[in-house]
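## retry 2 of 3
previous attempt timed out at serialization; input unchanged, resubmitting
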Amino acid sequence: MNSSTQKFQITGPAGVIEGLIDEPADTPASAWRGTAVIAHPHPLFGGTMDNKVVQTVARAFVQTGWRAVRFNFRGVGGSAGVHDNGTGELQDLLAVVAHAAPDGALALAGFSFGAFVTSHALAALAGRDPAKVVLVGTAASRFTVAPVTPDFHDRTLVLHGEQDDTVPLADVMNWARPQSLPVTVVPGGGHFFHGQLPLLRNLVARHLRA
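## retry succeeded, writing output
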């Protein structure tokens, strides 16, 4: 994302997991708000930790005082293993959380397939409640996205493009409606928010500052 981005590698359930860390500039670590772990879109359709939406979400976290951690799911880039339809990828995410954010405030975010995996991480992290959750382009039409429990609603931002032709807005609304979970809709937005990434960043930052 910038010249100060740090690379890391850990040993995950399927072998090496590679990732990137961005930290707030000119801010001592003692003043950081916590660590955010951000999951990327579908590995079989070109999704990586360098995806523009993932980078934009990471920037919003860094700008609001969070340490932002991105990583490649198994089988992507330098991460070992093969795609596992979300089951193994959830274990990858939990391994990164355990390594990068073993204590202190935690935030979770995901884009598309990454939002689906993140939704299941909320339940898997029992006793380690994230302070903030960001789900962008949630892949509700393609996967069984876990519901967000009522105690997480105030701390969760669900963002979706009005004209998303990869994951129709109607499918996300059908997922959110039974939960009475608000969805923030970006007018005219597509799945990758082309031309609207600054707006996406600002909406995420506003949620993080709330």
